[in-house]
Recover the amino acids of this structure.
């Protein structure tokens, strides 16, 4: 388990598939997260996907839950990719509980994924994709230091028109420059606890 402020990142269990079935078939949620809102998922398809996740060690899939209530609020994923000897972490998330959008949780999840990428997995860079109309996601990524690096023109067709796909990334050095500020902003009074648990080893 990886704990970050009030959030816990834990493995996806078979019991979570019922909740994932609800989220993965939510038109609006999938329209924002993958820009393929009609890609509904049957329980059988989800079970197959779950089996595939179990085999792929390079692709981490988390359920994000609130530590206090143990309520699952969304998912986060991190895929490790190597281009030659440059290590990239491709990250993504959605908050399935839509009433929690716009309250700063997306930024907290993003910083947690960068901590995993840079402070645990030794990534050189971190990247994320988003669709043109997803302003909430762009704001959250940019607030965490991601820069818009590229545009794939007219890559998605949703609600009657084509939209660009946007590519965001952040390099290790860029992250390290703003890291403490981001940790302070997203962890508040839980900063010390986090640094003690995930940034030091007893006796060293
Ligand atoms: C994208 C997502 C993870 C962001 O998490 P979140 O908790 O909602 O985001 P945050 O509250 O941390 O930040 C959102 C920012 O966008 C702003 N915002 C909220 N609604 C907005 C809107 N409709 N248009 C533009 N900006 C908006 C917020 O004010 C906030 O900016 P601020 O920090 O400057 O105030 C979440 O909204 C979500 O799960 N959306 C659906 C799925 C999705 O889009 N996944 C990401 C795919 S790349």
């Amino acid at each position: 388990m990886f704990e970050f402020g009030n959030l816990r990142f834990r493995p996806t269990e078979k019991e979570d598939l019922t909740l994932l079935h609800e989220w993965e078939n939510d038109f609006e949620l999938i329209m924002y997260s993958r820009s393929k809102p009609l890609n509904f998922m049957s329980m059988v398809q989800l079970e197959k996907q779950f089996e595939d996740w179990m085999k792929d060690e390079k692709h981490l899939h988390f359920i994000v839950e609130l530590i206090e209530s143990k309520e699952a609020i969304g998912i986060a994923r991190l895929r490790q990719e190597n281009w030659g000897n440059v290590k990239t972490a491709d990250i993504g998330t959605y908050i399935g509980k839509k009433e929690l959008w716009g309250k700063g949780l997306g930024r907290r999840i993003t910083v947690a994924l960068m901590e995993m990428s840079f402070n645990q997995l030794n990534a050189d860079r971190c990247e994320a994709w988003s669709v043109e109309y997803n302003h909430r996601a762009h704001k959250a990524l940019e607030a965490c230091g991601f820069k818009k690096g590229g545009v794939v023109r007219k890559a998605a067709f949703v609600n009657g028109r084509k939209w660009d796909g946007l590519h965001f990334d952040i390099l290790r050095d860029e992250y390290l420059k703003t890291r403490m500020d981001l940790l302070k902003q997203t962890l508040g009074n839980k900063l010390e606890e986090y640094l003690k648990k995930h940034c030091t080893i007893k006796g060293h």
User: Anything to note?
Assistant: The beta strands are 2-4, 7-11, 59-66, 72-83, 86-95, 125-131, 147-158, 161-171.
